[in-house]
Amino acid sequence: MPLAAIKPVWLDYNTAIQKSKIDNVEVMQVANKQNGLFNLSFRYEMGKWNNKKLPFALDYLQYLGTDKYSSEEISKAFYQLAASFSASAGNEESSITLNGLNENFAQALELLEHLLRNCKADAAALEGLKNRMQKARANAKANKGAIMQGLVSHATYGAKNPFNYNLSDAELNAITADELVAIIHSMPSFKHQILYYGPLSSVALSAAVKKYIKHRPAGQPYLRQRSLQEPFRTKTKYFSAIMIWCRRK
Questions:
Q1: What letter would DSSP give residue 62?
Q2: Phi and psi of 243, rounded to 5°?
Q3: What is the CATH number of the domain that holds 105?
């Protein structure tokens, strides 16, 4: 049986993405007409440049329990709902994402909200996370790609640059579990956008997600340097050499 010819479909974002507001929160929504799955993201206009501890705090979230449930019980509850969540922070943006079966949307969202607002400090989980971070840093010092990334960032932005805007070893070791939990608890009070892909109507989505956010702190921008041409170099144990030209525009 011959197949019908495939024709391109040109996407019109003005019609393909439904835009609305829930209170003062911007919502962008696309209907999932293929199956009963959903993806919900809370997108924050804040990241590591706003708070160097934020990426660490969001990594920490996955290991935490609450006043009602242990970390293992939280994981089991998400599994039983056929749902999962993730949280990450970049330089200027962060996101908390929930996905799974749409028939369990309300229960999964309630569980995520409960975790965000009621997670409890876990000293043992923090110690394990610090150890993994320190090991990753040690490995990066022997990684040619990471070394060149740092050198390019220095050449592009100067001594204060996105690559080295990280917690120092002393700052990392000094972080307490209570500090990170306080950052997580504060997330629902920050300005964000809601991005939703799934079967829910805008009315049903609005009824389910009316619980979030207001303001955000100012971040630290990094400006490209405009000084004269200048070489930057670093010594490694490798025998091969890499050279990169960067334009400061």
A1: T
A2: -130, 135
A3: 3.30.830.10
- Reading across the β-sheet that carries 18-22, which strands appear in turn? 18-22, 25-31, 192-198, 37-44, 94-101, 83-89
pLDDT tens-place string over residues 12-65: 888 889 998 887 788 999 999 999 999 999 999 889 988 999 999 999 999 999
Burial class from Cβ neighbours inside 10 Å (0-12, 13-18, 19+) for residue 179 reads middle
**Tokens of residue 10, six digits:** 């040109």
| Helix H or strand E encompassing 40 | strand 37-44
Tell me the sheet residues that pair with 94.
44, 89
Tokens 């876990």 sit on residue: 122
- Report which residue type is found at 108: A
Alpha-carbon torsion, ordered 109, 112, 114, 120, to 10 deg: 180
Euclidean distance between CA atoms 22 and 159, whole angstroms: 42
**Domain range for 236:** 140-174+222-249
- What pLDDT, in 10s, does the model give residues 71-118? 999 999 999 999 999 999 998 899 999 999 999 999 999 999 999 999
Spatial separation of the C-alpha atoms in residues 28 and 33, rounded to whole Å: 16
Residue 5 lies in a domain: no
Q: Which residues contact 166 (CB under 8 A, 6 or more apart)?
A: 48, 52
Q: Examine residue 238 and state whether it is found in any structural domain, yes or no.
A: yes
H or E element: which one contains 103?
none
Residue 130 falls inside a structural domain: no
Instruction: Report the C-alpha gap between 38 and 105 in whole angstroms.
Output: 8
Residue count of the chain: 249
Q: At what angle do helices 54-61 and 177-186 cross, to 10 degrees?
A: 90
